[in-house]
């Protein structure tokens, strides 16, 4: 299904069914924005949601939202998310928060990886994003 002339989301019938992600996202004639892995730290660098995957995930998505807005974009412009989690069995809670931010009709391509630990011992999740926007006419 195509949402605009820049991005086309596809789930070939010959691949397994998806659960909140698209198998293929095609981007044409656009600028690409890479957002570094975001963690559950607030503006002052303080941890949000110690021991709480849902609270940490919400803070991470808020940080991504702020990063997107800084370049004039929104979650609809995100074409790829990569999740790094210390406990992949918590993915249900992550998806519940994620679905409050992304376009669930045309979700971005995604990968999820369980890691032993993140940059700080008390962090449970890190998410990086790739977004696209129309080329600036110059």
UniProtKB/TrEMBL annotation:
Source domain of life: Bacteria
Gene3D superfamilies referenced in this protein's UniProt entry, alphabetically: RutC-like
Gene Ontology cellular component annotations, sorted alphabetically: cytosol
Molecular-function GO term, any one: deaminase activity
InterPro entries, sorted: RutC-like_sf (IPR035959), YjgF/YER057c/UK114 (IPR006175)
Pfam hit, one: Ribonuc_L-PSP
PANTHER family: 2-IMINOBUTANOATE/2-IMINOPROPANOATE DEAMINASE RIDA, PROTEIN HMF1-RELATED
Family named by the database record: Belongs to the RutC family.
Protein name: Endoribonuclease L-PSP
């Amino acid at each position: 299904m195509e949402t605009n002339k820049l991005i086309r989301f596809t789930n070939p019938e010959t691949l397994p069914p998806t659960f909140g992600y698209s198998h293929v996202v095609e981007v044409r004639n656009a600028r690409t924005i890479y957002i570094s892995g975001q963690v559950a730290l607030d503006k002052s660098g303080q941890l949000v949601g110690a021991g709480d995957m849902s609270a940490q995930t919400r803070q991470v998505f808020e940080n991504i939202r702020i990063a997107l807005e800084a370049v004039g974009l929104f979650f609809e412009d995100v074409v790829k998310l990569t999740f790094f989690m210390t406990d992949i069995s918590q993915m249900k809670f992550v998806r519940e928060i994620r679905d409050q931010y992304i376009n669930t009709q045309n979700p971005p391509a995604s990968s999820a990886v369980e890691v032993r630990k993140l940059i700080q011992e008390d962090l449970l999740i890190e998410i990086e994003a790739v977004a696209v926007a129309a080329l600036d006419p110059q």
